[in-house]
Amino acid sequence: MLFKSVVITGASQGLGRALALAFAKKGSHIFLIARSAEPLNRLIEEIRRDGGVAFGYAGDIANKNDIYPIAAQAAELIGPVDLLINNASTLGTVPMPLLLDTDCEDLSRTLETNLVGPFRLTKALLGPMLIRNKGTILNISSDVAVSAYPNWGAYGTSKAALDHLTRIWAEEFAGTGVRFFSVDPGEMDTKMHLDALPESDRSILKTPSQVADEITGFLGRIEKIRSGSRLLASELKNQLEEQVKTSGVQQ
Amino acid sequence: MIAARTPRTSALSDRLLVLNSKNSLHSTGATQAIHIEDSYIGDFHTHLRLHDLLVVNDSATLPASLQTTLPSGGQAEVRLVSSEEDGSYLALLFGEGNWKTTTEVRPLPEIVSIGTILPITDRLTARIEAYERRCKSGRLIRISFNLEKAPLLREIYRAGKPIQYSYMDQEIALWSVQNVYAGRPWSVEMPSAGRALSSAVLLKLRQHGVAIASLTHAAGISSTGDPDLDAQLPFKERYEILEETVRAIATARSHGGRIIAVGTSVVRALESSALKNAASPIASASLGYSPVAGASVDGSPVAGVDETDLIIEPGFDLQIVDGLLTGMHESTESHFKLLEAFAPRSLLEAALQHAERERYLTHEFGDSCLIFSNST
């Protein structure tokens, strides 16, 4: 199996939850992080009932004090981490205000969760990957990282910065076996989507488990993808073929 | 020497003292050429060469200092020492005082009876199982927790703080005692030799053709506050050597590379594993590959989990390790004895005087020293 041990943030709902179930089904040992203990514990019980191996940590990646407890407990309980999925994120204030109406503190809080949190957790888990010369970091992004939409200032800025962080990590670790990706999952039927766009037609949205399948599917062939790439979940297959065709080089 | 009193973050400018000694035979008799060189940790790679192997201790540091309330209502510190095979823990008890109080002057708490339950968190308690006989003062106890595995770890992380050093300017946070490659939290104090190894240093080593491998060694307590107990340090410590690390050592040696240990815990683990392996030939036969031939190759470590109470002293015949990256320490420390397995006392003393003169920083967050053994 490619990913024996997987750490997922924001795991109690939406895409995080779907990814947890998908990796558990594939036999990965998983370590899940979410802010509220109750849904997290329910998910862990559900996975264990189905014979999976799962542990959890109720905490906030925006809190620096939670990072090393997470890293150490994950290493002890599921072994050296093969894959970190930085999935947790916040929209900030909803309904989302225009930038001029956004409190400075609100922007800071959004960046703490969506940018600094993933940075910290990556920092804590990357060192062992460097020694083993093996490991993957997957940052969950969004189309608002690329396109500038009104009202998406705090969230969009945080995701654009996360994409760039992914690219810079990849450059710094070029030539090693440690690889970095950001994935835009596309529009999904999640609580976050409902919070952001309450009037959208839910029937045309993908479910989190569909997206989770797309992501686990592409991770199975990850050796063929250039580290630092930004990928669209819905076009993973095409992008993969494109990259292999144009570069011919496997990095 | 001067203590480094804050955790420094820009480690590349930290200093590195490089020591070499060569035995050579002249008509006038055996002489020892010693060589002391001032360098920087950012230039660590220039002292190593293609096919050398760096072995690090990837253990993370547990927040091993827990607060409790005694039956009398007094406060005490339970300082975890090691986890035992039967699930119990060895721990030290300290009475009144805080992190600024030197361990040596911390009083003992009142003696509480065996079976006493010490509350740690709302979910975690520790039961006093025994007072260890080897410690007359009653400071060293054996405790068992009411929780195990994941819930125990969670509560220790909720309640614990890293063991503190009274010479520091501020209390040290958990992130200041983790090496960049820290994984499983087996150590109760930081395996501090690795602190100098930033990712920039590690990447440069790789680019330079130096291989890197790891083992996990539960680095123990550095000071107990009890002179009798301190004389027994280091206590028995648990370690695990991975199959791939055993292979990396064989590969490095087959190419003439040297094995460089990061920290004395790595020396202890590798050398005691090699000693055990030499004592039981079945173990080496079951490796599935034979140790590489060559005059310099004596023993090989075996993969697996084990415990060591090996004390490395002057005259110890190093089987595996050719060089050691370690922190700067004073000559009075037991650490110095281990260094004498690498270099003669005259060189170590000259190096210390040099370090003193050149104002190197000492202790856990201080500068580093790279020592190559005589034979390399």
Descriptive report:
The complex is a heterodimer of chains A (251) and B (376). Chain A has 251 residues and is of the alpha/beta class. Chain A has one domain: Rossmann fold (3-Layer(aba) Sandwich), CATH 3.40.50. Chain A has eight helices and seven strands; from the N terminus they run E-H-E-H-E-H-E-H-E-H-E-H-H-E-H. Chain A has helices spanning 14-25, 37-49, 64-78, 104-132, 153-172, 191-196, 208-219, 236-247; strands spanning 5-9, 29-34, 53-58, 83-86, 135-140, 178-184, 230-232. The model of chain A has no long low-confidence stretch (mean pLDDT 93). With 376 residues, chain B is of the alpha/beta class. Chain B has two domains: 2-61 and 171-372, QueA-like; 65-159, QueA-like (Thrombin, subunit H). Chain B is built from eight helices and 17 strands. Chain B has helices at residues 149-159, 199-207, 227-230, 243-254, 264-279, 281-285, 335-339, 345-357; strands spanning 2-3, 15-26, 29-40, 53-57, 65-69, 75-83, 89-94, 117-119, 125-131, 140-145, 211-217, 237-241, 259-262, 304-308, 323-327, 361-362, 368-372. A nine-stranded mixed beta sheet of chain B has the order 3-2-17-15-13-4-11-12-14. Chain B is globular and about 65 Å long. The two termini of chain B are 29 Å apart. Chain A binds chain B through residues 55, 57, 64-65, 67-69, 71-73, 75-77, 80, 124, 126-128, 130-132, 172-173, 175-176, and chain B through 56, 58, 60, 62, 149-150, 153-154, 157-158, 174-175, 178-185, 199, 202-203, 206-207, 212-214.
